[in-house]
């Protein structure tokens, strides 16, 4: 069962290892500059986020309003939140531009209507934007889990701009692109700026994203937000999920050229050539040493595994908690090319028995590194800033370094701040 796909459809307990975690909603929302977060929840619900805030250096931007059983049955939840915000703003040195009010699963059961609360807060503090967000794992199997709704709330802050400028927004990138990356360079050569939320230094710079000509959606969690931005701000969107396959990156630039009515492919071709050279160089270093990929390192582990296989690498294992719809084609092609490749679910309860411990892999991601106890580990969480041809080149560099360096998986996991 652990060596095939059958376990993906099985409804059972989840095993959550020390390697599980990544860019959670707290860390994601903190990308909005000059924002603050207030969690309204019982003590136990706040412990997780508090530790994560400490580990990721954002604890000064997160506050808590802990509620008791008496508060729950009092029927005065609205007053409780308003009073809590009043107390918070008195304590802060500077009033934030945005306050995200997070509530936990308990609030779903109470059925609180937050719109009147937000309206009242907006009247009390007109210089601050208020948004209600949920921290409710019970909605993970719905169409609007916390990861999607927090993105909707973040981009809903943008207001319709009176003018457009030559800018393309990259939606779904938690780490900003380097100045030398192909997507930024190619767009700049065509006269366009690249807008990335994680690169915004202040709220005014974030507001500039409302003037963009196009939103490039590279992660499914921001698709709903992009659709709402099109309706509210008039910004069209192009969905092209991150890919490590060069041909798919070619397609992205071709589609982007069509949308912008300007040719980007010639400039992009120079970066493709460099990526091909870096792949050849890396293959010469790693040879036929087995490679493993996991779903917390990259959004599309099957896509990456397929790309590596097409480049000549020997992929032996893909660790993923299921095969989402946007990965089914890649998973199918990978199985056709490598029939004996192992698909395993690191959250399946059998994982606690470490059935893959001791297997030799160059692991891309903490999950597969943890379940194999590999000494060769590429440290990567949710693609981070990797995108386009430059993302492929950076990944190749990291694979070379990981292959030539002995890793301490436990220390790397501890330093990664995975709790959020």
CA radius of gyration is: 22 Å
Look at the helices and sheets and give the structural class.
alpha/beta
- Please tell me the overall pLDDT: 90
User: What percentage of residues falls in helices of 4 or more residues?
Assistant: 40-55%
What is the string of SSEs from the N terminus onward? HEHEHHEHHEHEHEHEHEHHEHEHEEHEHH
Query: What is the molecular shape?
Result: globular
Low-confidence runs of at least 5 consecutive residues: 1-6
**Which strands sit side by side, in order, in the main sheet?**
11-10-9-12-13
Write the CATH fold name of the largest domain.
Rossmann fold
Number of domains: 3
For the biggest sheet, the summary is:
5 strands, parallel
The termini sit apart by 30 Å
Number of E strands: 13
* CATH architecture assignment name of the largest domain: 3-Layer(aba) Sandwich
Enumerate how many helices there are, as a single number.
17
CATH class of the largest domain: Alpha Beta
Report the sheet-strand fraction: 5-15%
Protein name: Oxidoreductase
Domain Nitrogenase/oxidoreductase component: 27-402
């Amino acid at each position: 069962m652990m060596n095939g796909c059958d376990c993906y459809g099985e409804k059972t307990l989840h095993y959550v290892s020390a390697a599980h975690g990544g860019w959670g909603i707290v860390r994601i929302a903190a990308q909005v500059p000059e924002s603050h977060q207030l969690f309204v929840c019982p003590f136990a619900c706040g412990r997780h986020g508090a530790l994560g805030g400490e580990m990721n250096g954002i604890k000064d931007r997160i506050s808590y309003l802990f509620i008791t059983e008496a508060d729950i049955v009092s029927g005065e939840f609205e007053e409780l939140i308003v009073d809590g915000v009043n107390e918070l703003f008195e304590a802060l040195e500077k009033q934030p531009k945005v306050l995200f009010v997070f509530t936990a699963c308990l609030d779903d059961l109470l059925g609180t209507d937050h719109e009147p609360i937000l309206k009242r807060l907006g009247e009390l503090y007109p210089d601050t934007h208020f948004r209600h967000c949920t921290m409710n794992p019970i909605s993970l199997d719905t169409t609007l889990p916390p990861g999607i709704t927090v993105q909707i709330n973040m981009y809903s802050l943008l207001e319709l701009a009176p003018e457009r400028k030559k800018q393309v927004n990259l939606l779904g990138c938690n780490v900003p692109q380097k100045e030398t990356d192909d997507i930024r360079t190619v767009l700049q050569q065509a006269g366009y700026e690249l807008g990335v939320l994680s690169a915004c230094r202040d709220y005014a710079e974030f507001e500039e994203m409302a003037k963009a000509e196009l939103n490039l959606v590279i992660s499914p969690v921001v698709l709903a937000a992009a659709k709402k931005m099109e309706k509210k701000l008039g910004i069209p969107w192009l969905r092209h999920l991150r890919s490590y396959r060069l041909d798919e990156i070619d397609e992205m630039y071709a589609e982007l050229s069509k949308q912008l009515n300007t040719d980007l492919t010639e400039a992009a071709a120079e970066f493709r050539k460099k990526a091909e050279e870096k792949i050849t160089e890396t293959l010469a270093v790693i040879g036929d040493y087995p490679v493993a990929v996991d779903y917390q390192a990259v959004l599309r582990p099957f896509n990456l595994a397929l790309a590596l296989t097409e480049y000549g690498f020997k992929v032996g294992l893909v660790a993923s908690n299921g095969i989402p719809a946007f990965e089914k084609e890649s998973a199918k092609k990978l199985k056709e090319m490598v029939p004996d490749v192992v698909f395993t679910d690191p959250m399946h309860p059998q994982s606690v028995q470490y059935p893959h411990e001791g297997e030799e892999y160059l692991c891309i991601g903490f999950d597969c590194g943890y379940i194999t106890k590999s000494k060769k580990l590429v440290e990567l969480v949710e693609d981070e800033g990797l995108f386009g041809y430059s993302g492929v080149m950076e990944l190749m560099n990291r694979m070379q370094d990981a292959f030539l360096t002995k890793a301490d998986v436990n220390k790397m996991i501890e330093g990664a701040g995975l709790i959020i």
